[in-house]
């Protein structure tokens, strides 16, 4: 298996993106999506608007990424259930 080594710059960029994302989700949960601005997010994240827009096109993209995480999570659960059903089905016949 090939492992990709990230540079320090790439690691820092990913950390910044994760921080912005987590701060945005926290603000959306506490203040409501429509009440949160990009300025609010960057202030909480301790970064600037340029960093926000480097990683996200808009607030909407943060919500889309959150839904993608849910999709992955539920797909994994579905696949586990599917395997269990197939296993149970094969045992009964």
UniProtKB/TrEMBL annotation:
Keyword Amino-acid biosynthesis listed: no
Every HTH tetR-type domain range: 14-74
GO terms, molecular function: DNA binding
InterPro entries the UniProt entry points to: Homeodomain-like_sf, HTH-type_Tx_Regulator, HTH_TetR
Source organism superkingdom: Bacteria
Gene3D superfamilies: Tetracycline Repressor, domain 2
UniProtKB keywords: DNA-binding
DNA-binding region in chain numbering: 37-56
Transmembrane parts of this sequence: none
One Pfam family named in its UniProt record: TetR_N
PANTHER family: ACREF/ENVCD OPERON REPRESSOR-RELATED (PTHR43479), ACREF_ENVCD OPERON REPRESSOR-RELATED (PTHR43479:SF11)
Name of the featured protein: Transcriptional regulator, TetR family
């Amino acid at each position: 298996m090939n492992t990709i080594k990230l540079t320090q710059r790439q690691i820092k960029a990913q950390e910044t993106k994760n921080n912005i994302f987590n701060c945005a989700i926290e603000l959306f949960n506490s203040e409501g999506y429509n009440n949160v601005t990009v300025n609010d997010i960057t202030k909480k994240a301790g970064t600037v608007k340029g960093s926000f827009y480097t990683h996200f096109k808009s607030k909407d993209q943060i919500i889309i990424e959150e839904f993608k995480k849910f999709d992955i999570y539920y797909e994994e659960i579905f696949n586990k259930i599917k395997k269990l059903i197939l296993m149970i089905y094969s045992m009964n016949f």
